[in-house]
């Protein structure tokens, strides 16, 4: 019966991965928190599950012309080289340390995303205020000019 929950975890992870946000940001916590899978094993499962999801998502993104191949190749080259180092580091690190590092990573991403979202809301509100203020001033000037102009008719 537990396999149903693994399927649900895969569906959630797949949707997030398909959106280009990295399914592992959800899959790894789901596996470690709800299924008590060791952090290193959860990361390995994530890597294994990532490949087919990435291929399908990539095909769809290419068809929609959402892939910049020049930038992508630079990222692939540097990512492949650094993944060797990361894999060696992960294999030689305790599960507890991996959990802490992953938690810090998620926290930093969350703080960054929250900050960007809040700044966007504030910027949008300021722009709306400027638009409203400008419209009121324009209308005021229009009505004032209309009164002045009517005196000369």
Describe this structure in words.
By secondary structure, the chain is mostly helical. Helix content is 87%, strand content 0%. The chain contains five helices and no strands. α1 packs antiparallel against α2, α1 crosses α3 and α2 runs antiparallel to α3. The longest helix has 57 residues, at 95-151. 10% of the residues are buried. Mean pLDDT is 82; it is low at 148-153.
State the shape: globular
Helical proportion, percent range = over 70%
- DSSP helix count? 5
**How does the helix and strand content classify structurally?**
mainly alpha
**Multimerization state:** single chain
* C-alpha termini separation: 87 Å
Total beta strands: 0
Order of helices and strands: HHHHH
Strand residue percentage: under 5%
Uncertain residue segments: 148-153
Q: Overall mean pLDDT score?
A: 82
Largest sheet: none
Gyration radius over CA: 26 Å
In short:
The chain is mainly α and 153 residues long. The protein contains 5 helices and no strands.
Any descriptors?
globular; mainly alpha
Give the secondary structure arrangement, pairings included.
Layout: H1 2-18, H2 24-34, H3 39-63, H4 69-91, H5 95-151
């Amino acid at each position: 019966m537990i396999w149903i929950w693994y399927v649900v975890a895969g569906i959630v992870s797949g949707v997030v991965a398909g959106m280009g946000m990295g399914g592992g940001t959800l899959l790894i916590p789901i596996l470690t928190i709800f299924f008590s899978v060791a952090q290193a094993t959860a990361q390995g499962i994530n890597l294994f599950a990532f490949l087919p999801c990435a291929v399908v998502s990539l095909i769809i993104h290419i068809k929609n012309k959402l892939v910049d191949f020049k930038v992508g190749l630079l990222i692939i080259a540097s990512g492949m080289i650094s993944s060797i180092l990361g894999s060696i580091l992960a294999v030689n690190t305790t599960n507890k340390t991996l959990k802490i590092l992953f938690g810090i990573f998620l926290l930093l991403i969350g703080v960054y995303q929250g900050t960007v979202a809040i700044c966007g809301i504030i910027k949008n509100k300021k722009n709306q205020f400027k638009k409203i203020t400008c419209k009121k001033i324009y209308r005021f000037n229009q009505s004032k000019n209309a009164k002045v102009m009517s005196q000369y008719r």
